[in-house]
Amino acid sequence: MDTTAIDISALTSSNLSHSDLVSAVTELVATMWSRVDGHASDDAEELQKAAASALNAALDADRRMAELSQRIHDLEELALTDALTGVANRRGFQGELARCLSHARRHGERGVLISIDLDGFKEINDTNGHLAGDRVLQHTAKLLADNVRSTDTVARIGGDEFMVLLTHTSCEDGLARAQSLEQCLNGSSIAWENKAIPIRASFGMRSYTGHDTLEHLIGRADEAMYRTKRIRAEFIRQSRAAA
Q1: By the 8 A CB rule, do 106 and 210 touch?
Q2: Residue 190 pairs with which residues in a beta bridge?
Q3: 90-107 vs 214-242: helix axis angle to the nearest 10?
Q4: Nearby residues of 3 by Cβ (< 8 Å), 6 or more positions away
Q5: β-bridge mates for residue 156, sequence order
Q6: Are 169 and 110 in contact (CB under 8 A)?
Q7: Rounded to the nearest 10 degrees, what angle do helices 121-128 and 130-146 cross at?
Q8: Cβ-count burial of 110 within 10 angstroms (0-12 exposed, 13-18 middle, 19+ buried)?
Q9: Rounded to whole angstroms, how far apart are CA atoms 81 and 242?
Q10: Residues whose CB falls within 8 Å of the CB of residue 81, separated by 6 or more in sequence, listed in order
Q11: In CA terms, which of 42, 118, 142, 220 is 20 to 30 Å from 70?
């Protein structure tokens, strides 16, 4: 009996999909066992070994496919997620913002972009160490993420700068939500080495439509945030001078 006609090596081909692989193994094993009837025991034993070899090859290929798929998924997540805080990174955020602007152009929708920068973050690092600074960043990301909708996006753009994308939101609603986030964040603190480190941040907001570009919108939101930061810094300076 010629068993070489059964191509076991083909089962490990990287071109086979999962369903193709299962079908091929099923057909192969069925063919092998159909040949056992009426043949000598030596032939039956040979076919049993061939079937076992085919099944092992199929299982190994399936395992490698699953591992490769998981690896690709993990790499995609790492490429779009900030490792420290777990929210989107700059690349992930820009991709989501570009998608939302494209959707706004097609459907005439509106939304709001909020730019956030922590105040006095360098002083926190210098006074309490970088581990404390990391805790502040994680706290900020979690607080923002916990207070937006699932359809919104929170991102750490870099350093101590965050952005929040509010989709399907009017300018008025966006302003109210930005003020709520600002009050929530600026009223919070983290516990560190038997003391509380207060969180302070400056917010800037810009609404968008389908006519906005990604770079222009981010620039306008940043401008609004830095304007707020300058006003807050000047107020603090004057308060200290008057004390």
Answers
A1: yes
A2: 197
A3: 120
A4: 32, 46, 47, 50
A5: 162
A6: yes
A7: 140
A8: middle
A9: 44
A10: 87, 88, 89, 92
A11: 142
Nearest to 204 by CA among 163, 171, 170: 163
Catalytic option among 82, 119, 152, 160: 160
Instruction: Answer whether 198's CB lies under 8 Å from 191's CB.
Output: no
Q: What is the pLDDT of residues 53-106, one digit of tens each?
A: 766 776 776 677 666 666 655 545 558 899 999 999 999 999 999 999 999 999
- 62 assigned to active site: no
Q: What are phi and psi of 81, to 5 degrees?
A: -120, 140
- Are the CB atoms for 214 and 241 separated by under 8 Å? no
Separation between Cα atoms, residue 232 and residue 212, nearest integer Å: 28
Rounded to whole angstroms, the Cα distance separating 79 from 93 reads 11
User: Which residues, including other chains, have CB under 8 Å from residue 35's CB and lie 6 or more apart?
Assistant: 1, 43, 47
* Residue 28 pLDDT greater than 80, yes or no: no
Q: Would you place residue 240 in the very low, low, confident or very high pLDDT band (cuts 50, 70, 90)?
A: confident
Chain-centre distance for alpha carbon 103: 20
Pure H helices in the chain:
18-36, 41-80, 90-107, 121-128, 130-146, 171-186, 214-242
**What's the rounded Cα separation, in Å, for the pair 138 and 197?**
13
**Residue keyed to tokens 């190994």:** 60
24 and 10 Cβ atoms separated by less than 8 Å: yes
